[in-house]
Amino acid sequence: MFRPIQTIIDTTALQHNLAVVRQKVGHARTIAVIKADAYGHGLLHSARALSAANAFAVLELEAAVKLRDAGFQQPIILLEGFFSSHELDAINQYRLSTVIHHHEQLSMLSAYRGSNKLAIFLKINTGMNRLGFKPKPGNSALHALKQQEFIGEITLMTHFACADDAAEQQLVIQQLNEFSVLRAECGIHLPCSLANSAAILRYPQTHADWVRPGLLLYGVSPLPEKTGIEMGLRPAMTLTSQIIAIQKLSPGDRLGYGAQFTASQAMRIGIVAAGYADGYPRHAPTGTPVLVNGQRTRIVGRISMDMLSIDLQGIDHANIGSTVTLWGRGLPVEQVATAAQTISYELLAAISPRVPRCATP
Ligand SMILES: *Cc1c(COP(=O)(O)O)cnc(C)c1O
């Protein structure tokens, strides 16, 4: 028997969301970002549902090889590039594309002779100060790449620190300006890629040649003021489990680890098979929303490793075996993220491998 917790992945929602993104970005080509096991949705069935994308982006070589072995022909981009020169043989063999963000990677490349042309995304640090080359005049990284005959197409790339935050528009514009200066200095036109989900929505002037949506594809909003549903997207993941025990508390009874919750009146509590080892956030406080048979109620007490407790007051039909929706259909993950003081990205990506992914249809 399986534990009753599972994620149900609506693959038609993924298709729909990709179509919405493509419609927003006009002629820009789309790199579907499917890192972190497609934001917890499962790599291969998500890639299949998103196969209308012009390219895919992942982090690990292993994920890229899985996609090739499954028959995907699109460019597959390694978002952090390679970490040792041992990876270059596989990158060559599987015709992968790679981000280059550091001089170490350039020197590994210059010592390598591949049989295929290697497509490069040259990452420019325009102010986020995480990865990338500073946009110096006569960019030496670009110069070094152009010297190498087995380098194929070079795309200039950058990443925004605050595209999601309307109050930080100035920083986005500043990063965009840095990027434009470098681009102008290149002399020839190189294709460019700047926009993540938030920039796709807020800054159409950043769409350029390639956009890199992640979160939007999963039907979730990167912006604080709106949910995915309110933007016409369809959340692709529903995380559900079941009630596996019922407790009846008397006034004054306390509940769970730390005895953090005290019943102020007689109440029924449902014990649900879902805990932080499944990826449900341990710091979700009393009051975090959940659905029981579609009806909204709340978490009470601390989240344990494998279980959590919910308030069944006023939900008399709830019993052992009742379906509990932790987020997804009927309960946007954005609302759970807000209640738990985190972001939807973290909730989706943290779903543990022990939770089965069930793709529909
Ligand atoms: C994860 C990632 C993205 C996608 O970000 P979203 O906010 O999910 O759209 C785009 N570009 C890079 C470099 C990333 O690492």
Automatic annotation (TrEMBL):
Its EC number is 5.1.1.1. It comes from the Bacteria. GO terms for biological process: D-alanine biosynthetic process. Substrate binds at residues 130, 305. Pfam families: Ala_racemase_C, Ala_racemase_N. The active site is at 35 (proton acceptor), 257 (proton acceptor). It is an enzyme of class 5 (isomerase). Pathway: Amino-acid biosynthesis; D-alanine biosynthesis; D-alanine from L-alanine: step 1/1. GO terms for cellular component: cytosol. Keywords: Isomerase, Pyridoxal phosphate. The modification N6-(pyridoxal phosphate)lysine is found at residue 35. One of its GO terms (molecular function) is pyridoxal phosphate binding. Its cofactor is pyridoxal 5'-phosphate. Residues 236-360 form the Alanine racemase C-terminal domain. The keyword rRNA-binding does not apply. It catalyses: L-alanine = D-alanine. Belongs to the alanine racemase family. Catalyzes the interconversion of L-alanine and D-alanine. May also act on other amino acids. NCBIfam families: alr. This is Alanine racemase. It comes from Nitrosomonas mobilis.
